[in-house]
User: Which sequence fits this backbone?
């Protein structure tokens, strides 16, 4: 699972804005590309690896992360 | 006189077409279908009609639904019915082309409440695929579609899902709830879970690399079961746990389905045995790659 990783929320948001311009977002049914999330002191957002929103080949500082597994059920 | 050119298989379809090529048409000989370039994707049509002439007759029918009086008629209208073959919930002619992003999956149950599932964030939108007659929505492990309204499952309910995971290491979690650590069922690493953590099976999975069918049921006496491939029960548990369904493709706390979802149907009651078997017959006819579905008895 690939993410574009940044030091600050502002950097991550700026990269999202750049990706949105590259992909032509907003468009019908799609108002934004992603929301940045803070994980372990870094800001990251998921980049698609398939489909029309694929951008893992153009986004900055793309890194691979393992899937998490579920916690114990309620 | 102009004629439509033939191609042997899908591999012979021309590449590099764009919007200027809209309307380019071939007859694909291995399927006997016309393929028409819509400016971004190929759409397939039967040569003698716009869609399969038996399409309506082969749908799951119920009173007040999109189809009724079909060859697969049941007596109970679902609460929600998500069918990738009718992605907008109203007309298969509106289906997107192969490989396009899905921002909305329409509920085709015919219920007044709006349960359409949508996603406006591009990176979280799943992708639509067409494989011959089978249509499905692929969730890549970060995709989800949120229901316009949530639905709290009553004491008795039925959920049937046709789905798969792309690899055994991935999670099969097609239906998400509105609260953390709550599920109707999911599978990961060879363990299948029912509605609670104490409803577990370690014998069936992992074998989800191909299309599979699951029922999650609870009757009026709180008897909860998970069935696979028709009426084969792998989990049986008495529980009154409350669950509220909220989305496709993701749990509330960020765990994701990674794979394809073909169809999800939810009823707010326990169907009769005859109706369950009719649903199985409908799905068996529709998805040729499904394993044999055994009858409920």
Assistant:
């Amino acid at each position: 699972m690939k993410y574009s990783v940044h030091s600050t929320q502002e950097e991550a948001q700026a990269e999202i804005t750049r990706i949105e311009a590259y992909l032509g977002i907003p468009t019908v049914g799609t108002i934004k590309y992603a929301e940045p999330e803070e994980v372990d002191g870094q800001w990251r957002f998921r980049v698609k690896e398939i489909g029309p929103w694929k951008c893992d080949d153009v986004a900055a500082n793309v890194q691979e992360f393992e899937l998490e597994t579920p916690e114990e059920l309620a | 006189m102009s004629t439509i050119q033939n191609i042997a298989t899908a591999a012979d379809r021309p590449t590099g077409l764009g919007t200027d090529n809209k309307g380019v048409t071939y007859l694909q000989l291995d399927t006997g279908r016309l393929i028409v370039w819509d400016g971004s994707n190929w759409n397939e049509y039967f040569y003698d009609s716009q869609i399969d002439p038996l399409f309506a007759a082969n749908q799951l029918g119920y009173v007040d639904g999109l189809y009724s009086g079909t060859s697969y008629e049941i007596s109970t209208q679902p609460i929600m019915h998500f069918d990738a073959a009718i992605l907008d919930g109203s007309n298969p002619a509106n289906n997107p082309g192969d490989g396009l992003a899905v921002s909305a999956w329409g509920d085709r149950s015919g219920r007044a409440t709006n349960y359409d599932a949508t996603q406006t964030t591009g990176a979280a939108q799943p992708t639509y695929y067409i494989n011959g007659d089978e249509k499905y929505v692929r969730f890549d492990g970060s995709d989800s579609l949120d229901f316009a309204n949530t639905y709290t499952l009553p004491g008795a309910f039925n959920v049937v899902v046709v789905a798969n995971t792309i690899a055994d290491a991935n999670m099969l979690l097609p239906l998400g709830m509105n609260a953390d650590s709550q599920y109707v069922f999911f599978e990961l690493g060879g363990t299948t879970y029912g509605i609670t953590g104490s409803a577990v099976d370690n014998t069936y999975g992992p074998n989800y690399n191909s299309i599979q069918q699951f029922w999650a049921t609870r009757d009026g006496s709180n008897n909860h079961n998970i069935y696979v491939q028709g009426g084969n029960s792998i989990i049986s548990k008495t529980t009154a746990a409350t669950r509220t369904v909220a989305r496709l493709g993701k749990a509330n706390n960020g765990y994701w389905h990674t794979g394809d979802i073909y169809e999800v149907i939810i009823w707010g009651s326990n169907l009769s045995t005859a109706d369950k078997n009719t649903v199985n017959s409908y799905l068996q006819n529709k998805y040729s790659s499904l394993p044999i579905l055994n009858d409920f008895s």
Summary: The longest strand of chain A covers residues 2-6. The beta strands of chain A are 2-6, 37-39, 42-46, 62-64.
